[in-house]
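INTERNAL TRANSFER SHEET
From: sequence group
To: structure group
Subject: Helix-turn-helix transcriptional regulator

Please process the attached sequence and return the structure record in the designated field. Keep the field labels unchanged so the import script can parse them.
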Amino acid sequence: MSRRSGVLEFAVLGLLRESPMHGYELRKRLNTSLGVFRAFSYGSLYPCLKALVQRGWLVEETSGQPEEQQSGRAQAAAPLTGRRAKIVYRLTAEGKEHFEELLSQTGPDTWEDEHFGVRFAFFGQTSRDVRMRVLEGRRSRLEERLAKMRASLARTRERLDDYTLELQRHGMESVEREVRWLSELIESERQGTERSGRQGRQTGQDRPAPGPSDNTDR
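Return from structure group:
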């Protein structure tokens, strides 16, 4: 499975975890909520859905309402109307479990440009410690990239024309902005962890010690 198809499967599972959807609605959500998929078509989406159904992570449910017109996609005809039925995709228990496993992953793939954006879109469903590892990994990756860009620019500056030089500077500034943004997010996550820890300690301090009656056999 290619990295790009893996990202698409992750996004589909994440969206269907929120609610069942038909293919047209899924495509709209991928296009509008996850910008990395703006160029994706039904030709990419439906093979992905079929594969997820075959693995037992999704099930297809047919409703009587017609789906939007889709080129190259044969649907079962709705009874009496002669129009194609709308196929709704729903996440199974196994699919939810698999998606939660994917959410817990924090390896290098989660830091890459394409995958990071999709992972970030589902941070609301991700635990804080996993968010921290992904954010810190992404920042480290960009800091490495920035160091290489600076070194390359220092070696080639004299051979570049003004426009190429300006383009390279623009690229560096974009990476620097994202590093600052990531640092702000990481600091916010840390402050949230500290606040939770203080609240937990205060709750424990305020809780009265159990009295003799608490241990009385019933």
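Handover comment: Confidence is low (pLDDT under 50) at residues 66-81, 206-218. The first helix runs from residue 3 to 18.
Transfer complete.
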